[in-house]
Specification:
The protein has 211 residues and is mainly alpha-helical. Helices cover 77% and strands 0% of the residues. The radius of gyration is 22 Å and the shape is globular.
């Protein structure tokens, strides 16, 4: 006997077990992600209500879009900081991001507020990069770049400005913000393609037997 209580002797091991305990599905990060998914149909209804051109309803739609963008900033940060990363979150988070942005772009183009080619370029890039990440995932993960974060900020700002019924100088400003967003979308998309090719080649080279 050591004279040490069993609970004290096993305390260190217990703390280790708690530290590596997998995150539960129902955590704050995943709840925020699910809230963002639930906002998508609500946003569409607000955006298209009363013909889609009512400034008041467009303001409500902007509020829903803004909440979705803000929760996007917080759920990933919370998941990483407090070890709340789950398989559900890894899948649902990017889907929620693409869903709210895609819904906004399609609504804007359907209302003739935004050219369809802009919506096509952005959606093609986002879906293509997502598929590319899965293509190279066995060789490694393509990290989010600073340019990619700037692209997300520019897209969110530009789309938010188009959702609001702006006129005058602000309407002109949103055109240029969207132009910057489109350029960043294309440039960062090409950079992700380059990274994916390099990563895949390096992974395949590492798997080849050495002579």
């Amino acid at each position: 006997m050591t004279g040490v209580p069993a609970s004290a002797a096993g305390g260190h091991h217990h703390r280790q077990a708690v530290a590596v305990r997998p995150a539960r599905l129902w955590n704050i990060a995943n709840i925020l992600t699910m809230m963002r998914l639930a906002l998508v149909p609500g946003f569409v209804l607000l955006m298209l209500h009363n013909g889609g051109y009512d400034p008041a309803w467009r303001s409500f739609a902007w509020a829903a879009f803004a909440i979705a963008m803000i929760t996007d900033l917080f759920d990933g940060h919370l998941a990483r900081r407090y070890n709340l990363v789950t398989d559900f979150g890894k899948i649902a988070d990017p889907i929620a991001d693409k869903a709210i942005m895609g819904a906004a772009l399609i609504c804007l183009s359907a209302l003739s507020d935004l050219p369809w080619w802009v919506t096509g370029v952005i959606l093609f890039r986002e879906m293509g990069i997502t598929l590319m990440r899965f293509w190279v995932i066995r060789h490694g993960v393509i990290p989010a770049s600073r340019g990619g974060k700037l692209k997300t900020l520019a897209q969110g700002t530009a789309v938010g400005m188009y959702i609001l019924a702006l006129t005058g100088p602000l309407a002109t400003l949103r055109f240029w913000v969207m132009a910057v967003a489109v350029v960043l979308t294309v440039v960062t998309g090409l950079d992700y393609v380059r990274q994916a090719i390099v990563l895949r080649r390096a992974g395949r080279a590492a798997q080849e037997p050495t002579s």
